[in-house]
Specification:
Elements lengths: L5 E2 L4 E2 L7 E2 L4 H4 L16 H10 L3 E5 L10 E6 L4 E7 L2 E4 L11 E4 L2 E10 L2 E9 L11 E4 L5 E2 L7 E4 L6 E2 L2 H10 L7 E5 L19 E3 L8 E3 L30 H7 L8 E7 L4 E4 L5 E3 L3 E8 L5 E9 L3 E7 L5 E8 L2 E11 L2 E8 L4
Parallel strand pairs: 4-13
Antiparallel strand pairs: 1-15, 2-12, 3-10, 4-15, 5-6, 6-9, 7-8, 9-10, 10-11, 13-14, 16-17, 18-26, 19-25, 20-25, 21-24, 21-26, 22-23, 22-25
Length: 376
């Protein structure tokens, strides 16, 4: 469990002050040569730049001063969405939903996957500003109050258009742009007490989720219930989130955790973080046959870096995935050959020629594949 830093409440900025934050990186530098740093998730943004963006625009959370369920282990991801724009997904990953404080904590459950998405624009040089923010508040539930908010409707901690203030509903963790919005949220079931404690969301280097094609984190182990056992949660699989409080992936206890619509994969996917980060294709393959990817050929990379691919085969089939490198002949360097319909490989390789091979071990039908390669 990670203890979050509590900060002293200062005057909240509601009017323009500093109009941009200098993070030390321009978009051109973020997408520049890998000689300037690693791009481990092969998404076109250097890792150090992604952390600079996520940490410089980290929200400040306003909790009720007596909140008992704020324990969380946050992760984050950054995605380029335009020539000068990125989105940051902050997965708050609360260990527990504390239940409705107005109904004696009724409807509490293990795991609460509320999240925040911030859209940020590079204005000039290494200066960036927030354009808008999406605040989840019981995403996908009948009382869903989640919404996008323009930067003009937000309050900020110290820096205008840089550190947004988010009001968090007592015990239930719905996110709101103001206390009044919180008290009216979830059909007036949410509540934000006037007495608050402010905490940084909790952005740590090394907590970058990557993306669905090349995940940097998927299975995450932590002790969420204090039993000295490490429980597993995932971000890129359709598994209900239980706040590291249920022992096994197939434990029946997961049925009482965060609702199925609130798997991290569903939430990340709704905002484009599960889209292909490289070259995608769909092809038909008969049982026993094989196909070369991407697009029937090999490719060359002049430098070391991470190669990634995600293969989704047809239902009731077993399609396998292989990566070869040319070393006097084609040599197998990585494989994924389980009985699952989904196979994924992330491989750190040196410069050279590479090719992917899809093999229909059993079954037939249309598969889809996304291939990501290192940038020069």
């Amino acid at each position: 469990m990670v203890l979050m830093a509590t900060i002293t409440l200062l005057l909240v900025v509601n009017v323009p002050g500093v109009l941009a934050r200098d993070i030390g990186w321009s978009m051109a530098q973020c997408t520049g040569s890998v000689l300037s740093g690693e791009d481990r998730d092969a998404d076109g943004l250097l890792d150090r730049c992604e952390f600079a963006i996520a940490s410089n625009f980290e929200p400040v959370l306003y909790f009720y001063d007596l909140e008992a369920s704020q324990a969380r282990i946050p992760f984050w991801a950054v995605k380029k969405t335009g020539a000068t724009e990125v989105q940051v997904f902050y997965a708050l990953s609360y260990l527990r939903d504390g239940g409705d404080p107005q109904l004696n904590r009724a409807y509490s459950h293990d795991g609460d996957s509320e999240f925040i998405v911030v859209r940020i624009r590079n204005t000039a040089g290494s200066e960036w500003v927030i354009e808008e923010i999406y605040l989840s508040a019981h995403y996908g539930a009948p009382t869903d109050s989640s919404a996008w908010h323009s930067y003009t409707l937000l309050s900020y901690y110290q820096n205008y258009r840089a550190t947004p203030v988010v009001h968090v509903a007592e015990e239930k963790h719905g996110n709101y742009a103001s206390r009044a919005a919180c008290d009216a949220g979830a059909a007036f079931q949410d509540r934000c007490n006037q007495v608050v404690r402010a905490e940084w969301l909790g952005v740590l280097d090394g907590r970058n989720l990557g993306n669905l094609t090349v995940p940097l984190w998927d299975g995450v182990f932590a002790d969420g219930d204090g039993d000295q056992q490490q429980e597993l949660e995932t971000y890129w699989r359709p598994l209900r989130f239980c706040g590291w409080r249920v022992d096994a992936q197939d434990n029946p206890g997961r049925s009482s955790c965060a609702p199925e619509v609130n798997t991290h994969l569903n939430e990340l996917g709704a905002f484009g973080f599960a889209d292909c980060s490289g070259t995608s294709s769909e092809r038909y393959l008969s049982s026993g046959r094989q196909m070369v990817e991407p697009n029937g050929t090999y490719y060359y990379v002049p430098n070391a870096g991470r190669h990634g691919a995600r293969l989704v085969g047809p239902a009731f089939s077993d399609f396998d995935l292989y990566l070869f490198k040319w070393v006097d002949s084609w040599q197998l360097v990585a494989s994924a050959a389980s009985s699952s319909t989904i196979e994924r490989i992330a491989y750190d390789g040196t410069a050279g020629y590479y090719v992917w091979l899809v093999h229909a071990y059993s079954g037939y039908g249309v598969y889809s594949i996304c291939v990501a390669r290192p940038r020069p």
